[in-house]
Design a protein that fits this description.
- The protein is α+β, with helices and mostly antiparallel strands.
- The longest helix is centred in the C-terminal third of the chain and has 18 residues.
Length: about 230
């Protein structure tokens, strides 16, 4: 495209390779900027889900409610995203920090952008006393981490996070190994827990479930298939 110069030329300079590199780096940096926009407004009507959490560290159950807002309704990009979170319980021991936590989380939800980072942040909080085991043998490092697991479950249900799991062939192998072990030890009278794993099973470092047993000379998890032998 030709450009007509209508003013007197007072000077000129050639674009160096260094200038080209700086321009490219600047464009790349600008491309990575994420505009969050204005906080979302609360609709008159909002829907969500309530999860019941009973832990051995609290006398009463926690009821965690996560309400969602529908984005781009009526379009091909329609999806749900969390808008607010509430936690209720008869137990008032943790009232102050739970209220503070849910208010901060709700503010993050309403601000927009990627909120999935909250899951790892919450699940990485460890209780000084050492955490506890849920029903079924799954280890939870803290009450905050359990709240993080509920948020993770909710994000998976609305499609913001991919549900973890084994593929068809891996699941088949795990089922075969589990059936083989149970058949082998059925006559020994070995006790099983409510999840169907041996009561003497060790904690699996991958899925945090007491389902790892010695099989064929190797520590193998009957829940997720994790094996020390590869």
């Amino acid at each position: 495209m030709a450009v007509k110069i209508e003013k007197k030329i007072t000077g000129y300079a050639l674009v160096s390779e260094e200038d080209k590199t700086k321009t490219a780096e600047l464009k790349e940096a600008n491309a990575k900027i994420v505009q969050l926009g204005e906080p979302l407004d609360r609709p008159e009507k909002i829907t969500g889900s309530t999860y019941k959490v009973k832990t051995p560290v609290t006398e009463h159950a926690l009821y965690i409610t996560i309400n969602d807002v529908v984005m781009n309704e009526g379009t091909s990009q329609e999806h749900r995203r969390p808008f607010e979170i509430f936690i209720n319980s008869k137990n008032m021991d943790h009232f102050q920090w739970i209220v503070a936590l849910t208010r901060v989380m709700s503010a993050v939800f309403r601000k927009g952008g990627d909120i999935t980072f909250l899951v790892e942040e919450l699940k990485s909080v460890f209780e000084p006393s050492g955490g506890y085991f849920k029903k079924g043998g799954k280890f939870v490092p803290s009450l905050v981490a359990e709240i993080g697991e509920v948020v993770e479950q909710h994000l998976q249900e609305i499609g913001m996070l991919k549900k973890p799991g084994l593929d068809q062939h891996q699941q088949k192998l795990v089922n075969e190994k589990k059936a083989e072990y149970l058949e082998k030890h059925a006559k020994s009278g070995e006790e099983m827990n409510t999840e169907g794993f041996p009561k003497g099973a060790q904690l699996c470092n991958k899925c945090q479930t007491k389902a790892s047993i010695i099989m064929d000379g190797c520590l193998t998890c009957l829940n997720c298939g994790e094996s020390k032998c590869g």
